[in-house]
């Protein structure tokens, strides 16, 4: 009996990272179910990748109802879920003093709540799948969760309190599941990368990156494929950091220095 292809569920990020993850995983033989509120971006991906991809554009992808609809859609189309790549939406950048109290629950805590709910919901399905497998197949099933964050998950910049706290809380929420998930043979890891949006809005950030550029979506998708595949099978509770050397730099880097 030939095993059916594995299925990746991507939550969010359809315009860039989600699109590149869909391309990378389908080239590796996976099926992909991509959920995002951007129906136009999803239609373009579906048109490009055809039957290897199915999509869903609910009004919200972070609520319990939205996540349940995503799981139901993936199971209806492909019959299994082997990995979930979650790309949470970030709040607008604000200073702490400009953040209103009612924004904490609605926007700042929302990414951590959404990631926690997704892990809780989809891990139940992963466990059910392994229970239905032959013992040898279950041992190599290797289900996993992958979260994608900007560097705000680790570091803060002036005026970005809201994004820093939202991402750091979401990263902590995901990592806190590591031990309990490991007992179920499920892994969870994160990718933390210099995102282009930040450097487009604040060009001076390039001077804090020794390699002088942001991370490309292709690099993030390659890291996700590694984490979901056999190469990352013994990794859990870890973060792959694609920061161009920024975490090693104390101060500002003169990008013109290398031309001398």
Automatic annotation (TrEMBL):
InterPro entries: NAD(P)-bd_dom_sf (IPR036291), SDR_fam (IPR002347). Keywords: Oxidoreductase. It holds the Pfam family adh_short_C2. Gene3D superfamilies: NAD(P)-binding Rossmann-like Domain (3.40.50.720). The keyword Oxidoreductase applies. GO terms for molecular function: oxidoreductase activity. Belongs to the short-chain dehydrogenases/reductases (SDR) family. This is Dehydrogenase with different specificities (Short-chain alcohol dehydrogenase-like protein). It comes from Hirschia baltica (strain ATCC 49814 / DSM 5838 / IFAM 1418).
